[in-house]
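The protein record quoted for completeness.
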Amino acid sequence: MHFPRLPDWLIYLAVVAALLFAALGRHEHADAPEAPPPAPGGAGALLPPASALDPSVAIDRPMTRGPRAGTAFSVGDAGVWVTARHIVAGCSKIAIVVAEGRGVAAVRAGGSAGDVAVLTTRGGAPALPLGSSVGLKRGERAYHPGFPRGAPGEVASRLVGRGKLTVPGGAGGAVTVLVWAEDGRTTGISDNLGGLSGAPALDGAGRVVGVTIAQAPRRGRIYTTTPEAVGRALAAAGARPSPDAAGEPIATDNYGRVADDLRRNLRVAPVVCLSS
């Protein structure tokens, strides 16, 4: 039996369609919105040192009195935590939430650096390892696990560069920050990421490279402290991070699961200012 010979143009069309299908099948997704921002210009270049020429940004984040909530994370197995300073500033009663309706009293340790605060509790959770700015590259991803709007959730982002952030009611003038372009988030999270403040920004090795402190929804930007600000805050508070802390590798295909594990093990937990 002889099959009819297909036209050459039909064979070429089938080959092109197969190649296109294979290319699209390899496209990386980060649980992202339909139109994530492209990788920033200069992706792959090492992050330069802080400079007076870094762009300045002002964030409208008025300080409020009364109960406030955010995210904290463990850096010391014996009960050393880090969060955003503006969550616990002026609080007389702070708690780390360990289960629904249950919390442990936290005390703010002395000293701070920018928008970083150090808390201590009696007993703790497995610590997250700390990273540094050395080797950070533009376009590098970070993952922010926490409690946006009081519910479990996480965001993925790419590093744009450095900047200077001014916040009303902040700790004295502009502070040097890392600027990230959001390119993925848990399905169902609203544009307002309130409650994610204080969450760790984790690199692909699961190391803390900053504390999430602000968001610019219209720009699609997330702002974190530098890794060095975390180290300075711990030193000022006389608190020592666990030297043998280990992180879990994170990528775009598992950051939701890793974030769930971090919350389940209380390495990342809600923090509440109950009175101020």
